[in-house]
Design goal:
Elements lengths: L7 H6 L5 H25 L6 H14 L3 E2 L4 E4 L17 E7 L1 E3 L2 E2 L2 E7 L4 H18 L10 H12 L10 E2 L6 E4 L5 H5 L3 H14 L9 E4 L2 E4 L3 E4 L2 E6 L2 E4 L6 E3 L4
Parallel strand pairs: 6-14
Antiparallel strand pairs: 1-4, 2-3, 3-6, 4-5, 7-8, 9-12, 10-11, 12-13
Helix pairs in contact: 2-3
């Protein structure tokens, strides 16, 4: 999805959400959660396509008088290697994921539901299981006072041990924009080398601010590990969380969906 640019100073001012903002985000999260049942029912259909599932999810969001936080992503098979692939007229089979979110009174939520429909190969099973293990590990890693970018470092280290590469951020703040601070990622030098002079300068300037951010109560963000392998496919698992004085609290409730047979 195309990211909306917001001045980083404005993002810093709203990094800690007010009680009113949290209330609006929780309402947005409930609308987003309601789409999980829609997704499960659609996956049970024999010849449903990626595009049909995406439309069913978006229709459910609009019926509740909310807006789309971003265009819905539904992807399966080798197409899953594209982090932000567009839904196709392809019948859904194998390993896949649906990435979607609602916007309620300006406040966005964002989840990704991984799924398996039918049989999958060993490499796909390994991708799926690695993603779920990483998600479980990361949700237990968040601590108040810890640098936010440490999440990416932890994820990258665990992924490389299994022979995989990191392709995107492990999480991001949500609010009035779908991507806000805090950023749970670390500046990757390999990515920096691919940027032009102006973009490189902008990325470095942002990193010099972001690297000092630490987790604290009132922050609302996603945790979304993903594993992608060219020629095999990919998987992503994402939920939204709020960090409170008592610890991490889950706001959305995406869970993996496994459909053995269509009905």
């Amino acid at each position: 999805m195309k990211r909306k640019r917001t001045d980083i100073r404005k993002q810093l001012k709203r990094i800690i959400k007010t009680p009113k903002e949290i209330s609006l985000l929780k309402k947005s999260a409930r609308i987003t959660d309601s789409c999980i049942k829609i997704l499960r029912n659609e996956l049970k259909k024999e010849n449903v396509t990626e595009r049909q599932i995406a439309r069913a999810i978006e229709s459910n969001i609009r019926k509740q008088h909310a807006q789309l936080a971003f265009p819905t992503i539904v992807s399966c098979g080798k197409h899953c290697v594209l982090v932000h692939g567009k839904p196709r007229r392809k019948i859904v089979r194998g390993l896949g994921y649906a990435d979607f979110g609602a916007k309620w009174k300006g406040y966005c939520t964002d989840i990704t539901v991984p799924f398996i429909k039918g049989e999958i190969g060993e490499s796909e099973k390994r991708i799926f299981n690695t993603t779920l293990q990483a998600y479980k590990f990361l949700t237990k890693s968040v601590k108040s006072g810890m640098p936010c970018w440490k999440m990416q470092e932890k994820f990258g280290a665990s992924l490389r041990k299994r022979g995989y590469e990191v392709f995107h951020s492990v999480g991001h703040g949500i609010g009035l924009d779908i991507h806000e601070l805090p950023s749970l990622s670390k500046l990757r030098r390999s990515k920096l080398r691919k940027l032009g002079p102006r973009s490189r300068k902008r990325a470095l300037r942002r990193w010099h601010i972001v690297k000092w951010l630490r987790f604290g109560p009132g922050m609302v963000f996603t945790i979304e590990p993903g594993v992608y392998v060219k020629g095999a496919g990919g998987c992503r698992y994402e939920n939204d969380f709020i960090l409170t004085k008592r610890g991490l609290k889950q706001m959305t409730h995406a869970k993996p969906i496994i459909v053995k047979r269509a009905q």
